[in-house]
Write a structure and sequence with these properties.
Layout: E1 4-9, H1 11-19, H2 24-36, H3 38-42, E2 45-48, H4 51-58, H5 71-74, E3 77-78, E4 86-91, H6 93-105, H7 108-116, H8 129-151, E5 155-161
Antiparallel strand pairs: 1-2, 1-5, 3-4, 4-5
Helix pairs in contact: 4-7, 6-8
């Protein structure tokens, strides 16, 4: 499993990503340039491999999951062409604010319960107390990240490459 990263982007930075939507090679180039930009990277939030149990716990129905829970990792729209190659999602500033408000109300107990109820077919081999604690440890950083995105009216792009 690959590492997940959320980016907080201004309108111009987000537009470069949106312009590459549907072209995975170009998306990879644009995301690579954002990763290499120290100013952009300073605003990023790494979720390491915890993105997967977070996504599966908060939105086990995937794209059909409840909004704004599915937006934490799954965004409002997918930008990639090949789901096996990568997963790149986008939230505009108003959607980012909705996710921030959701995360502000999601307490650790509610996440633990959502993780416990994760459907068996979505569980990783690591499913259990250690993975739950690992994912739970990422939530404070995600809360801060989304709160900053909301306060600064920024887009959020999540990426993971296969």
């Amino acid at each position: 499993m690959e590492l997940g990263v959320h980016f907080r982007l201004n309108d111009a930075e987000a537009q470069r990503v949106l312009d590459a939507a549907g072209d995975d090679e170009r998306l990879h180039e644009v995301i690579g340039a954002l990763e290499a930009d120290g100013e952009v990277w300073a605003r990023a939030c790494e979720t390491d491999k915890a993105w997967d149990p977070i996504a599966c716990a908060l939105s086990p129905e995937g794209d059909d999951g409840e909004w704004p829970a599915r937006g934490v990792i799954g965004g409002a729209r997918a930008l990639q062409d090949d789901d096996e190659e990568c997963w790149v999602t986008h939230l505009d500033p108003s959607e980012s604010a909705e996710v921030a408000a959701y995360l502000a109300t999601l307490d650790d107990g509610a996440f633990v319960e959502a993780y416990r109820l994760m459907p068996p077919e979505l569980r990783n081999p690591e499913f259990g107390d250690d993975e739950q604690a690992y994912a739970l440890a990422m939530l404070p950083g995600l809360r801060e990240f989304f709160a900053a995105a909301a306060a600064e009216r920024q887009h959020v792009v999540f990426t993971v490459w296969g």
